[in-house]
């Protein structure tokens, strides 16, 4: 192991690390909101919304993430628009992850006893109010463990940005590699940077899960 | 009891990492020791096949024809000549795809005997591999959409965005020539060219030899300005493998004296080599 790579290229690594963190945070917030919306669509009583939600989840979930990112990177040029690699990659990541989050949340909502909705509706709440005030708060609690897994996956998946020159950790690691030719060492340090993000997250998730089980 | 299990599993993971690190060092050491045996001339002859790392995505030099599955180009013709010289049969050859990023690791892992992949000879790379004589003289230039305001290196400023390929010397060069310029690096030239076509940058930079291939592929794009660097291409082998370097240099000398080199050059580049 050549630790001098880490010290010599620390600035380069950090630049990528910042990119990965920023992209992951944006995609995390975005995919949570979008995923919740799609989940509500999927169990909606309105047939159009339900079909849209199901179509969205099945389409996005069953194509590779890389393809989703390509769509947002190369696709807009057909309309005379152009997104940079970071933006296109983060949007792609958001859309892709939201499909999985939608499934997790839908499962959570399904696990909330039907009586809860019925009680809320019969006390005068509309469907949307019942969702927001009664069902979703309970469902979210149930889906925290699977959501945590999705967020860890999201951080790891953000490495896809490198393909579209998205200025993330992997992108800069490739540059360090082409400078040093020390392939193995270069990427071991990359693994450490990802672990710095994912290990605490999985620890927090485990503690949270245990508290909920009590 | 539960605690000790946890401790054990953590230790196992750590141990795994350390082992992986040692294993790699062991391999590296083995690789350089084996240079004389593994990638050496005797080993190639014993195998009866020359394993060459070439580009599969670079028009004129190494491009895989999707309909026939054949890889063709200047680099391939040179590789065949080397195979003929060493093994007496120009088809006793196995072509493996490399990119600018993977070619040195693959060579040093022993997956390929030599790299014939538009690779510029640099001092830095000489520390990692040994090079043959120059087999192609290229220079870095710019590819732009026809009608672009960029007419040459002088039009590239620190507000410009230039596209390139990861691990290539051209990316480092442009950063030196135009300090502060934004450079976006892609995994291969096809991705960089697609990025140029979809408006991700003002110009694509690499060796003119590769840019002419792209311009031949899409007439809406042209190479502008004079070449602004000297890029001598060499064939790389594992360090210390002087026998193979000699065999390659002998082949190149033969090709040049017989006039075969000029023929191959004209076949792909479309003009006679500059003397």
UniProtKB/TrEMBL annotation, chain A:
One GO CC term on file: ATP-binding cassette (ABC) transporter complex
Entry-linked PANTHER family: GLUTAMINE ABC TRANSPORTER PERMEASE PROTEIN GLNM-RELATED, MEMBRANE COMPONENT OF AMINO ACID ABC TRANSPORTER
Subcellular locations according to the entry: Cell membrane
Keyword annotations: Amino-acid transport, Cell membrane, Membrane, Transmembrane, Transmembrane helix, Transport
Superkingdom to which the source organism belongs: Bacteria
Classification via CDD domains: TM_PBP2
Transmembrane segments: 20-41, 93-112, 124-144, 187-208
InterPro entries, per database record: AA_ABC_transptr_permease_3TM, ArtM/GltK/GlnP/TcyL/YhdX-like, MetI-like, MetI-like_sf
Membrane topology: Multi-pass membrane protein
Family under the similarity heading: Belongs to the binding-protein-dependent transport system permease family.
Occurrences of domain ABC transmembrane type-1 (ranges): 17-205
Entry-linked Pfam families: BPD_transp_1 (PF00528)
Protein name per Swiss-Prot or TrEMBL: Amino acid ABC transporter permease
Single GO MF descriptor: transmembrane transporter activity
UniProtKB/TrEMBL annotation, chain B:
Entry keyword set: Signal, Transport
PROSITE patterns according to UniProt: PROKAR_LIPOPROTEIN (PS51257)
GO terms of biological process kind: amino acid transport
Molecular functions (GO terms): ligand-gated monoatomic ion channel activity
Pfam families: SBP_bac_3
Ionotropic glutamate receptor C-terminal domain segment(s): 49-271
Family, similarity comment: Belongs to the bacterial solute-binding protein 3 family.
Protein name per its UniProtKB record: Amino acid ABC transporter substrate-binding protein
Organism of provenance: Paenibacillus rhizophilus
